[in-house]
Amino acid sequence: MKSNNLPLIEAIQQHQRNRPVSFHVPGHKNGTVFHHTIHKDFQSVLPYDVTELSGLDDLHAPTGAILEAQQAAARFYQAKETFFLVGGSTVGNLAMVYGMFRRGDQVFVQRNSHKSIFHALQIAGLTAILLTPDFDDESGLAVGISKQTLQKALNMYPRTKGLLITYPNYFGVSIDVQPLIALAKQQNLHVLVDEAHGAHFCLGQSFPPSTLQLGADVVVQSAHKMLPALTMSSFLHISHKLNDHFRHNIKEALSMFQSSSPSYLLMASLDGARAYAESLSKRELNLILAGVQAVKEELSTIKQFRILNWDDRYLSDPLKVTIRTTTSLTGFELQEIFSKNNIYPELADDKHVLFIFGLGENRLDKEAVELIRQSLHGYEVRNEELGMNAPKVEMDVKQLEVSANECRQLPKRRIPLEEACGFVAAEAIIPYPPGVPIILPGERIDRNTLAQIMKLIEAGATFQVERQLEDVLVIDSEDENG
Ligand SMILES: Cc1ncc(COP(=O)(O)O)c(C=O)c1O
After folding, report:
1. Where in the chain is the domain with CATH 3.40.640.10?
2. How far apart are CA 411 and CA 426, in angstroms?
3. H helices of 377-481, where?
């Protein structure tokens, strides 16, 4: 046990020991007033849901327990400074992009970024140059931007100010991004990383490195995804090289985008999640990973799917296990079969199901595996076409036809999706999860993208729209010839 240092949690516990009388918000009055059906269930956590009382500090101007908790996190992550986020990596992405650039700046953006990155570009009024990531041939999954793509983009757009990347992908996999970051820094680009899935990478051992150690300037991580933290609690780290001007702008952006009443429950969970990760010994980590391995071995006895093995071209997170259907079932249908047997994977796509393991005991009962085996028994295993799965991409470096902000001003109309090839989209099309837009507002819809959407609809993907995805909003003045 390396760390028992829990500044914020201890401050809240101390406050409760004093048997405080609440004449303040929140209205549940330290958990004494609550709906009877859930009162008992919530009772033990409600006392942590406090507010900016004396001794409990203030996230927007921290000088006490919150500052100490953030400093403990910064030490653990080897950051110059760490900010607690109560609105997920979403708010971190908004604040880092808004804080690091000026309206009108041009930035390189990984095409398969999370929607929050594109929203940030829109809010900050930036021009996006979209860089297509490389794809793994076998799985078809995006694995990061190559140095070659960045070099090409730099030749085409030499006045660009920054590079926004996602590392790793949702499946915990990436190419080595060190050469990419090194090139970007050589060219004086600000490197901003959406590391939502990598809050545990600082544990070293068999985990990939954090980009904070690879030269990135600002890194955002969803603690709630891979660490034991409450949903939405996240970190924004700034590197030792970042100067005070940018630090100030990011801090200002956080005070605009984060609630003025940040949840102490979430902040306490960040304090606890960091301390938990810090306390893990090598032996404990080995046991955790041995648990994952044992589950993988159990699952691999079922022939109706296979576990993807990432070769040494890639860095991969051992807590993420991707299984690929080997039958006529889509990934979505396979996920449904797991769920019906009370096993809930993180997500699916047309071919895969993703399992995410935790930093604790990882196990799957033999009976559960048997139930899955029986549910899949009738499905015939097919011969797979290997190495043919990367999507076709027309342009690896491209600018949007119209910025998302311009889009809002232009006349629009709805047209059937199958007729949309050649039109400029006026809305995003986002399968969720993972929340990565397939179409961005202002992007011309091409044949390959349309085919990709149709394939996802057919396979049963869910999209973040309030209706069936049958039509799409496009810019009105456009026709098929552009
Ligand atoms: C790559 C990536 N970035 C950002 C986010 C947003 O994170 P949060 O849910 O913490 O706001 C997600 C969420 O899934 C994500 O996958």
Report:
1. 7-279
2. 9
3. 404-409, 447-459
Give Cα 163 to chain centroid, integer Å: 17
| Nearest C-alpha neighbor of 448 from the set 421, 473, 428, 468 | 421
Q: For the chain (length 482 residues), average pLDDT per consecutive 10?
A: 80 97 97 97 97 98 98 98 98 98 98 97 96 94 96 98 98 98 98 98 94 98 98 98 97 98 98 98 97 97 97 96 97 97 96 97 94 96 76 85 89 95 94 90 93 90 83 78 46
Q: How far is ligand 1, taken at its centre, from the CA of residue 116, in Å?
A: 8
Query: Residues 6 or more apart from 395 whose CB is under 8 A from it?
Result: 132
Domain with CATH 3.90.1150.150 in the chain: 282-376
**CB distance 420 to 445 below 8 Å:** yes
The answer to whether the CB of 110 is under 6 A from ligand 1 is no
Q: Per residue in 145-180, is it b (16+ CB within 10 Å) or e — as a string? A: bbbebbeebbeeeeebbbbbbbbbbbbbbbbbbeeb
Any bridge partners for residue 472, and if so which? Answer: 415
The pTM (predicted TM-score) of the whole model is 0.96
Q: Collapsing DSSP states into helix, strand and coil, what is residue 130?
A: strand
For residue 88 and ligand 1, the question of a CB distance below 6 A is answered with yes
**8 A C-beta contact, residue 174 and residue 139:** no
User: Alpha-carbon distance 325 to 338, whole Å?
Assistant: 12
Kindly report, as residue ranges, where domains of CATH 3.90.100.10 are found in the chain. Answer: 401-475
How many CA atoms lie within 13 Å of 36's alpha carbon, on the beta-carbon side? 0
Is the previous residue joined to 26 through a cis bond, with omega within 30 degrees of 0? yes
Pocket residue to mutate for ligand 1, from 84, 90, 269, most atoms within 8 A of Cβ: 90
Among 89, 171, 211, 219, which is best to mutate for testing ligand 1, by the most ligand atoms less than 8 A from CB?
89
Q: For the domain 401-475, what is the CATH code?
A: 3.90.100.10
User: E strand or H helix at 16, and its extent?
Assistant: helix 7-17
Give the nearest ligand 1 atom to 225 CA.
Answer: 10
Give the separation between CA 193 and CA 465, rounded to whole angstroms.
Answer: 27
Architecture in CATH for domain 282-376: Alpha-Beta Complex (3.90)
Helix (H) or strand (E) holding 41: helix 36-42
CATH number given to 7-279: 3.40.640.10
